[in-house]
User: Which sequence fits this backbone?
């Protein structure tokens, strides 16, 4: 058997592999990296809720610039450079020093950690205090000639006028101490240093020490923090760099898709065979970067320097490879805004954009809340077994989350990207869109039914349809319907609908539902939502196919051609001449 290599398509394959390999060491770890810098959960939530809106603005603007000035390749290469520069500069942001002021009251018969804040915060915290497991806090205390603290807590190499570090454990189920409004009291049942531990440390006479307290329980941690995250300039530097980098990466992906279809020269059914290399790169380098970060880190904190260096090197290679792409002379649209405006006003194209938004909403539930849901389920399962674990969950939860992402990528995405051309050609774009919504519904309902997080692994196979098939359908359909000279703009618009508006809405709504009702309710609700959308989309497509043809026959829609979804796809050149390919409306040559 002779294998023929299409050297013309090697650069785009290499681009997809390199760009997603480069971002794999960074994007999955950004929330954890932000947390390590001292940005609390609320601050991280704000950052990653705003990013999709920024991408929604950047993609269409960059696409319009590329098409209007016929500079698709230049905009593409610049976006790769800006992505690397922005993310690499995150290293300059140093840790935010939180104000976790507290007082350690060392006395006999009980030492107590005292933390006073507003009565409103205190009242909100009381119902959330853990009663089944101890509260663990790390203290950094400044001594002012208080040697009794050194002996009481068995601290070796202790200076009576220096800074000391130790951890305490407080079992609130054994104490009734929350009697002063506004103040949280944590009786010290156990104190630990690196070399020793002591039960119920006491001081005589009574000694008061000023400390900084970092507690493991997330609710207590938020209560303890005295300052506001938005007052820190470092937070805003981190925020702006993320907006800059995320927007540039969004432009690089949408421009890369547009250039891929340009290189395919009408064979849009082969897009999945190119894009699959992005999933391969992501799957490989997520594992490699995780290993490098772990092996390069000391205990206590992670060192992400290998991830940033790996990203920089791979993006340089991507820039070199992408610059060698040989593109055809691009066509410039004489009336791009009018063409796009007329296109978006057609019923079928409007339904397509709404479909992209709906899938963005559903996808954000997976991206933002699935791992959180599985981690919560693992922790609940451990508590049922009588185990007190830290907030990160049991020891095996990291393995589970890694396997979860691996199944999504290798068992789901990779095979389906290869098969996407055949699926779209067999079913047609419109029927494939309906299939994607139905797969989301089944996937989410299954999540809501499991009680063991390990049972999520076979469900992840659906990611092949809900992302692999979906993404190929979205990008190829956008390319087919785009007027000549506005391909990059159209890819930017659908990318903004999916990864901008849709993901942003899903993040906000999904988070609100998760907070109010829990993960099971959220997945069940969005699963039913997806099934309703699936049925509605199928009905709308049948109605459009019938009535749009009727209206065109009566002359009510001059300047448009109806393209049937049930006949085999032809290339985009035939479509623009009025050929039959997919159920949609495109501007005819006369309208342009």
Assistant:
């Amino acid at each position: 058997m002779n294998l023929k290599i299409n050297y013309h398509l090697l650069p785009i394959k290499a681009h997809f592999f390199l760009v997603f390999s480069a971002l794999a060491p960074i994007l999955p770890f950004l929330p954890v990296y932000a947390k390590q810098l001292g940005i609390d959960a609320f601050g991280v939530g704000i950052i990653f809720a705003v990013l999709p809106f920024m991408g929604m603005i950047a993609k269409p603007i960059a696409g319009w610039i590329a098409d209007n000035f016929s500079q698709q390749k230049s905009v593409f290469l610049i976006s790769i450079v800006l992505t690397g520069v922005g993310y690499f500069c995150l290293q300059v942001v140093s840790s935010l020093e939180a104000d976790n002021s507290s007082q350690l009251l060392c006395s006999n018969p009980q030492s107590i950690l005292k933390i006073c804040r507003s009565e409103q915060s205190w009242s909100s915290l009381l119902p959330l205090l853990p009663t089944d497991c101890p509260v663990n806090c790390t203290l950094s205390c400044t001594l002012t000639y208080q040697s009794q603290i050194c002996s009481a807590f068995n601290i070796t190499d202790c200076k009576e006028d220096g800074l000391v570090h130790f951890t305490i454990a407080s079992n609130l189920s054994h104490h009734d101490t929350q009697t002063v409004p506004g103040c949280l009291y944590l009786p010290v049942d156990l104190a630990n240093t690196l070399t020793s531990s002591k039960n119920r440390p006491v001081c005589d006479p009574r000694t008061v020490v000023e400390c900084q307290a970092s507690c493991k329980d997330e609710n207590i941690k938020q209560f303890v923090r005295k300052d506001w995250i938005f007052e820190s300039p470092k937070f805003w530097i981190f925020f702006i760099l993320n907006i800059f980098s995320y927007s540039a990466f969004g432009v690089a992906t949408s421009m890369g898709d547009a250039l891929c279809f340009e290189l395919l020269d009408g064979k849009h059914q082969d897009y999945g065979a190119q894009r699959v290399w992005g999933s391969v790169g992501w799957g490989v380098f997520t594992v490699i970067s995780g290993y490098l970060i772990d092996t390069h880190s000391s205990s206590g904190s992670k060192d992400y320097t290998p991830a940033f260096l790996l990203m920089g090197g791979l993006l340089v290679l991507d820039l070199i490879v992408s610059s060698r792409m040989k593109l055809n002379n691009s066509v410039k649209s004489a009336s791009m805004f009018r063409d796009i405006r007329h296109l978006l006003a057609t019923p079928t194209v409007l339904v397509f954009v709404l479909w992209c938004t709906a899938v963005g909403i559903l996808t954000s539930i997976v991206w933002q809340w699935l791992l959180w849901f599985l981690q919560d389920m693992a922790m609940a399962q451990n508590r049922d077994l009588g185990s007190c674990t830290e907030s990160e969950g049991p020891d095996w939860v990291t393995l589970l989350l890694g396997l979860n992402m691996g199944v999504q990528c290798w068992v789901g995405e990779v095979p389906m990207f290869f098969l996407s051309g055949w699926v779209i050609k067999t079913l047609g774009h419109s029927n494939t869109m309906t299939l994607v919504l139905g797969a989301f519904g089944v996937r989410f309902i299954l999540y809501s039914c499991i009680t063991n997080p390990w049972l999520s692994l076979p469900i992840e196979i659906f990611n092949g349809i809900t992302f692999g098939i979906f993404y190929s359908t979205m990008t190829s359909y956008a390319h087919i319907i785009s007027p000549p000279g506005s391909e990059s703009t159209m890819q930017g618009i659908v990318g903004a609908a999916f990864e901008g508006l849709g993901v942003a809405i899903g993040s906000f709504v999904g988070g609100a539902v998760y907070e109010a009702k829990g993960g099971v309710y959220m997945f069940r609700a969005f699963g039913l939502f997806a099934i309703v959308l699936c049925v509605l989309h199928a009905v709308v497509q049948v109605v459009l196919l019938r009535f749009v043809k009727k209206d065109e026959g009566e002359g009510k829609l001059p300047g448009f051609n109806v393209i049937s979804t049930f006949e085999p796809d032809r290339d985009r050149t035939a479509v623009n001449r009025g050929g039959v390919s997919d159920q949609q409306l495109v501007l005819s040559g006369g309208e342009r």
